[in-house]
Amino acid sequence: MNMSKKTIIAAAALVVVCGASFAQSKSFKLGQWTEIQNSILKELNRSYVDSLPVDRIERAGIDAMLDALDPYTIYIPEEENEDLQMLIGKSYGGIGAVIYKPDKDGNVIINEPYKNSPAEKYGLRCGDEIMEIDGETTHGLTSQEASDKMKGKPGTKVRFKVKKVYSGDIVDIDITRERIHLPDVEYYGMLDSETGYIYQSGFTENVSGEIRNAILDLKKQGMRKLVLDLRGNGGGLMNEAVNIVSLFVPKGSLVVSSKGQGIGEQQYKTTMEPIDTELPLIVMVDSGSASSSEIVTGALQDLDRATIMGTRTYGKGLVQSIRPLPYNGQLKVTTAKYYTPSGRCVQAIDYARRNEDGSVGHIPDSLTHEFKTSRGRTVRDGGGITPDVVVKGHEYSRLTYSLVYSNIIQEYTLKFVREHQSVPEDWTMSDADWKDFVEFANTKDFDYRSSAKTLFDQMRKELDKDGLADSMKDQIDALQKALEMDKETFLNLKKDEIEPFIEEEIIVRYHFQEAGIKVRLRYDDQLKEALTKPLISF
Fold it and tell me: What's this model's pTM, rounded to 2 decimal places?
């Protein structure tokens, strides 16, 4: 079919107009909705029946808007900048202590002073009661309000009126605040004569330097194999992840690449000489290992440099950047996705649908893609890093979770500390201690039902709704009788599971976090099993 010159010109013009229209549509839509929102606010301010809570509804609107994008893009107003520093740097200005407030009308209780913190230096210890902060009573304050009053600019002073835990004396203590930094390398040491171990909990500034120093120290102690434990490590700074990988691989190795709108692909390679490219390396991960933890894990797996053990990681393959906003606010915004050296994106296919523990649900192979490591091993994307050697962790009972979340273990720890001025670092619970705990827990009101009992209770409600309960009464009553268990019996049944939690909490109060991690290692069956597994030969 022949087309006239006029038709061709008209068609070309249409393409140009449509192209311009598409280019403008994004900005037009943004302007349209901004205008609509402003008009709604003005009309509400003019017509709404009550005084308009502008701050509250605007913040709610911003939070809802960002929440519709992904869980990691958030608005931080000026008054929450300290929380941002804690989030990305694990640092804040204060005295360095965890507090506990059992009720609003009671005193603030020092729950755990950090090692070498101002709180420890000035003699505060677990069980001390803070009656006043800078002359203001702590009665009526929430835990957050009390914590906010204790924090402040490093170098400034804060005065406490304190009731000491053992003497009962009431004293005034002036403490100079410092910049408190919670370490990312919470513990390192030798597990046996040749196996070194590093527990890393975050990726804040210079953690790679801490890891480097720990490795050098462990080598002096005879280390021939290293376990880098990233279980529960939620991530942090990407550059620190790159620097940690650089400790184990040749200089110039690709660690991670990122791709985002308008910025194209950026590659991040190691820029430092490694410490050791041959040291046998195990990386322990689980469903709490996310973000920068997955960068380290994915890179070491793709580069065939480490044997990854544990369970599948969280699946957060999104990169966030901090952008300044008016009035000293900030926007933490997702700007890119990151990819391991083989090209995998570890972002969960659907991050909104996860298991109860936060882990990625089952993803069929048909929805994932194969990639190859540097030596030809097959790995897959689709959500998190799948370990080379799967080693299941301990699955705790509903009772143990309930004891933790109901603060029963914490309250018992405080009771124990008040009754014992010291315990050795290798302390373990005696039968008398366990009996004392059971008697204490028996007096507390908490949900001690088993998982099976909670499912039974839900089933019974559903049977009532369906009108089937009466016809099945005998069977239901028999099953209920079989599932019923008194609190003391259930506690004693789960003694071996609960005792390690209590021991760790108590040891930490006397000997700080490092000693608590040693207790955790004592009972770490997942790690013990991992050490029996053969490493992959590269």
Answer: 0.87
